[in-house]
Automatic annotation (TrEMBL):
It comes from Reticulomyxa filosa. The keyword Repressor does not apply. The chain crosses the membrane at residues 707-726, 732-752, 772-790, 818-838, 859-878, 931-957, 995-1014, 1219-1239. InterPro entries: Ion_trans_dom, TRPC_channel. It is a multi-pass membrane protein. Coiled coil: none annotated. The lineage of its organism: Eukaryota, Sar, Rhizaria, Retaria, Foraminifera. Residues 41-87, 99-151, 424-453, 1317-1339 are annotated as: Disordered. It comes from the Eukaryota. Keywords: Ion channel, Ion transport, Membrane, Transmembrane, Transmembrane helix, Transport. This is Ion transport domain-containing protein. It is found in: Membrane.
Amino acid sequence: MAKKPELLPKQTSFDVGSLLDSVLDKEDHVDDILDDVMNNDLAGLDGEDSNEEQEKPGKRKSEDLIDNMMGQIELQVPGKKPDNQALNLKSDTERIDDLLDIGDDGDIDMSVEQSANDPAGPGPDEKGNMEEKGQEKDERPKQKEKTVADTKEAQNIIDEAVIKLLHPDLFNQDKIARREWLRRNEEKLRTWPVNPIDEKIINVADCMSTIDRLPMVDAGVLNRFDVPSAVKEYKLKRIDLQEIPDIPKKYFEQTNTKEEDSKSGRSGSIVEFVIGDSEEGSGLGAIGGLSGKFDALTALGNQDKSEKPISCSGCGVRLKFKKKTREKDCFMAYKCDKTNKHYIFHDYLCVKLRIMKEAIRQYVFKMEVPSNASMDKDTLEGALIGIDVDDGGLKRSNRAKPQNFTTPRRGDFNYVEELDNKEIEEVEEESKERKTKRQLSTKRSTASTIHREEKKEVTTENIRFESFRRYRSHVTMIMERLETEPYEERFGKLPKVVLYCDLNEFGVALWEFVSESLKSKFRLSLWRVLEFLALEMGVSKVLDLFNAHTYLMAKHTLEEFDKVVKAAIEGSRYPIASSLRMAAFMNYRAKFDLSNEEDFIEIGKNYEEIAKKLLKEIESDHLFAMLVLIPTDIDGLSVMELALYYELINFLEEPRIVRVANAMWSGGMDFLRPEVSFQEAQLDITAFYTKLWNQSGNFYFSPVGKFATSSTLYILYLVLFSYVTWTLTYDYTFDFLLPEIVLWISSAGYVANKIVEFVDEPTKYFTSLSNYWDVLIAIDWLILAYFRFINSPHVIYNSNGQLDEIQTRNTTTTEAYMFFWSLQCVLLWSRVVIFLRISHGTGPLILMVINMLSDISNFGLIAVLFLIGVTFGAYYIIGTDLSNVQNVRLGTLSSVCLYIFQTILGQQDWEKINSQKNDSGQYLFNPTRSNLVLTLMFFFSVFGAILLINLLIAMMANTFDSFKEKSNTELNKQRIQTTFELDQAKANAPPPLNVFSVVFFLYWTAFELIAWVLTFGHRQFNEEFVSPLNKELWQYNKSDQVTFIKGKEKIKGAVVTRKTCYERIKNKKALNSVPILPNAVKINVGADTSEQWDCIVNAKGVTYHVLDSEIVKVSKLAYKRRTARIPSLQIENKYCRFCRFNLTNDRLHIDYYLQLFEEQSIHIDPVDIQYMRDLLSTTDRFGVPSTKLCEMCPNCFRPFKIENGEPDIIRRNRYIFEIVSYLAFKVVVWPTLLIVLFIPANIALLSDFIVGRFVAEETEESKKQKSAMYKTEDSDEYRNKVREASKEEDDITEIVKKIDGHVERLELTLLKESKVDEVVPEKPEKPEKPTKDKTDKPAVVTRQDEFDIRVDKMRSEMNRRFEEIADILGIAVQRKSQPEPTVATTVNSKSERVFATKSAFGA
């Protein structure tokens, strides 16, 4: 920057020429002055906020400089008077522009001097030039207004400009001055029109700086917040922290131990302190000095405990004054001179929060209290919500404190430094997370690392201030929404500081404040604030706040709470998922809040209906399926996963969701292809057998194939187990037969498979009920293996030296082995119900039994309590006196307990508790004690056998009835859940086939290691050569051998380069629009130079550019070249978890997927297209990157999750294990299924053939009859009669509806609890036998009785009219000897309608 110019010398007479000459002598004088005013003050702030700047009596040097210059110039201008008041109304830029007339380009306009010297003014040519210049200035915005500020480059310019305008030196000026300042100081904005600068920059900066212009006042101002004098009187002023008496003095001490030690010549080591200096008394030799130090430490600790806790006046969280963090602290102190109160804040964010709370307080008072209401001071204080924090109160949650994102904490308006520091911190945290989460090998090749870094640089958009961009975009969208009538009507009256605040910083804190305020009193205005916050904040954050403030869901606030929840759904990016999550939250609250259980359940159903209505807006089945499978921002779960996880069965009843599940069940990886139509029903046995025979690979990897494979293998395993059980093999059996050996190997695979599943996903393992079964089975197998292979059985031999099996079976170890083996029999056979849950016949029964287990558990708890009590009572009476009595044995507690349990079941033996005598005739158990036990057993048998058992039966019957109504819904939910789980599951071989898969996998790994050694790390097995999937002509990869046609010649070569799938889809449209001639493709030279190509093939040294349509054969090689010479099964390739397509550097964008529908001539609603684009977009219209939750596979078009920055895909080692699992399936399961299904499938095929060939064969007569059936009526007269009959039916329907409406209104009017004032005497009735209770008093008739009387009269009158009409119609029908069919039909339908209406009304 150039040296500051000196002040202009005072002149006694005004001479414009000399004045301008003095200014223009040095070229940079005016620019330097402006730079000092704007740039120097922006960069040289001293850390104080705008409130402090307005309170300081002094000004900056630049302000004094410009004021002195203005004063000297204005005193010398003819006709100008030194009106200080008028000067203060204009900004500095305006004062310079008025006096020096600085133009848009920064040059001084000389027209001032010309007008002074030439009174005639400018000539006509000059006027014309000026007019043309003005026209160009007016027309320029119209040409560039639509595009100049909408580019990505313009967003960074807007960010920097808005940041600069947020300084108080600029936002206190008017719009014109700020616009001209921007054009002078920002070169890129000089060519911008006026409207984009005002709308995108200046207006946004005005809204963002609204809170900085508001003063902060004390609560004592009460309702006089609109009175300027009261605001000035109670205004808070910035003071120094040392003026607060409550802050500990040690916080301000300036001590430096190292400097003091260096000055005193001490090194500060522990040895010197312990040895000390005896002369100074600082070592252990000076006991008094040491004790003095301990006394000082003790006193310091007591002082800390006695210090009064200080809370922040903005958020209420305790302030911590630590000397070691003093440099980082941004504490700010204020004081009100009127009330002499002190206010301390964490930083400028808390200051802003205090201003927002004051604005909400004013807003609530204006909305709740009439403007003309007169109240005393106490009433006013009760009407105003409290914002002051009590230091002696409870500790506030950290949620009440704002989170820093954009606001400078020190209040110095230095957004650039604050955002840069914030960005550095985020980058450091992200790098730490990446180091901990990513376990990358340090031996990776340099090429792959460079490629990954280049890819990251390409995909990452350069946004300098991302957090500020989010805040600015939020403010811009709020401004746009407030221009619409619905939004302005809902939230237009809210405080501007709340509307335009950064909700990432203040959203949670404001929610905490409003929620706490609602505790004291119900205020509708506060609910409107919550509704706005829920609309603009994320659903996940709102849910957390709902859980923290459950008192908002009281009975009298449910209506307002429902509005807040719907606002959160409305503002969500994924409204369908948000509706389901809110429905699940309501169902969860219904379990704990029993008083509002029905209301919560009803509200939850309403949210499910909202989700179903939103889904119905999507017309295309393919987009519908993709929408329910896309991961959302709610815990990364898709719509389908949310509905299944929270068991929202009402939502799963949607027929289109059932269609998606059916398509996923049978189609597997192909159901999202545009050419595939969704089927209604599931696979029949014929289609199942055909798919198994022709497409064994697709069958194995599909959900139906996984289910068939696992169920078949389990049945084979169960048969083998049953056979070994039938052979009576025990732990002492010495010979291991082949079936037992195979069983133990299979069981080892079973246990290993369950361990691997648990280690792979420990959090999700126990979400499935079948896994509990599997854990018990695995534990039982481990125990049995211990007894069979490790423990030594106790073997007993007879006198002949042979094994005595009878006595050996009675040993303890063998008995234990028998127990666990029998338990395994029950577990393994009962596990079959898992496969029967999706059956239409057995599925509902199994689900009923599972639900009845809760009834049994509740009944068991009550029964056990009484059982224990009666057991101890009976045992206390009996004692041990009957322990030696034959056939009784009731001397122990266990025997008494068993007898009581038999009593519950009604199987007790009453003779056991009769009186007993010994051999000498004395009573062991006398009659009195026997009667006591009999009495106890009598009452308990009545209670247990009659009451408890029947109670259990009634509970189970009630559960059966309630579940029977929704059995189909539960079955539907179970089928969808099974389909979805199998679709997400890996295609590993289920036990016991996994044992063979492990053997094959080890074999593969060993040979790949040998190939690596022999080829010096250059070659490896090609897993795609063995894979049964992705064998289509266009599913080729690099180094594959392809055969293609060029002209009339077949050529074979290796693929050198291939375009990604989305690039090939992108080029298809251009290829279809421009036809390719055969002569243009035929190339006989050394290289092919076609512009349109999908892959480059090298055939015998010649390079060809080949299209997918030209390829006729694809061959996969058994070996392929490694990308890295280090042997690894994981880092080579990445595969889609659904279709196992190679996803290495290949993804699909939603636009290219939608283009496929256009190629298939499938119409899709443009609204749905735009919605899917917005949903999967990675940036918004402001260029702000959104969280990337999923990517799309270019082969199956399925979206897959991105968790922690890593895609949810399958690595090469996992894919290899799936391939070897398929090979094991091909050897064991595939032939078994073909043999088992051969007869029923062929019978079904034969029946279909017979029906289609013979039964359904159409003759000529049947064809004519069929064509006649499809023929329409030609007679217009007949059509008119039918239309009239339809109109009459509609008229009758409308009449019935009107009658129903009148009756409902009568009910609402007459049915009230109050009685009629007048007394109506009773009607005379038929003589009856006199009764004693009959009185002569007149009956008091209620309004309900009067209503019944009137309704009876109306009913009898209408019945009479209906009978007359029916008689007339009957006579009319009989008189017509030959009635026309249509007329008779019409008359009959009318008469039937009349009688139906009469009977319905009577009912």
